[in-house]
């Protein structure tokens, strides 16, 4: 499987962090006479790296410039005033502190890159998804594709086509009476109930899962759609008889709008849905 650039950079930065930490530990352990000073300088290097991780590389570089200036001044003081000789250990933290900062920034940058890539993938998946994740029903994207084909078939072969739009009356009030998990289960149960009310050649869609709205494409005329409407409402009544004292303890009432396809007034799937939604106002 091909790995993305953010993941490779993150792995490389993490391994590099382990390496420079190991090198620093070995350096500190190898010079017992400067143990306390090296521990202090290590803490300073880690502090600059942590600040860089949570802010930006620019701030990290500023902190490193201040550190190099301060540590360089301290080393110069030891050399001139105390007569110390410049040795390799004087340069170690001048190199390692910026390295710690750079690696911390690499980790931050790689994490941000992976988050951006994940967000892009999620957005792409959502735009390409054709199924509702909670109900396993076709979603509105599938409806638009299918409705375009069904409308063309209806127009060409003079086949009756009717769209039902189904909603739960007073849904905003009802969802306050159940938990989020129960709400998801309730939508699923209603979807299955609607699915058993149609024929195999008809199609059921979840048009909106936030404000549960189902769409049913039926190969029948308006009168035939009334049979399906009555069948659904009868099943909801039976559902209420069981669930009013069961898991949900609420009574459901569906409102259903139906519109028969007319090529002269319905030009797009969205027009089809819009006209069916208007019929909801007459289901009292």
UniProtKB/TrEMBL annotation:
The chain crosses the membrane at residues 12-29, 35-54, 61-79, 91-109. Keywords: Membrane, Transmembrane, Transmembrane helix. Gene3D superfamilies: 3.30.70.270. This is Diguanylate cyclase.
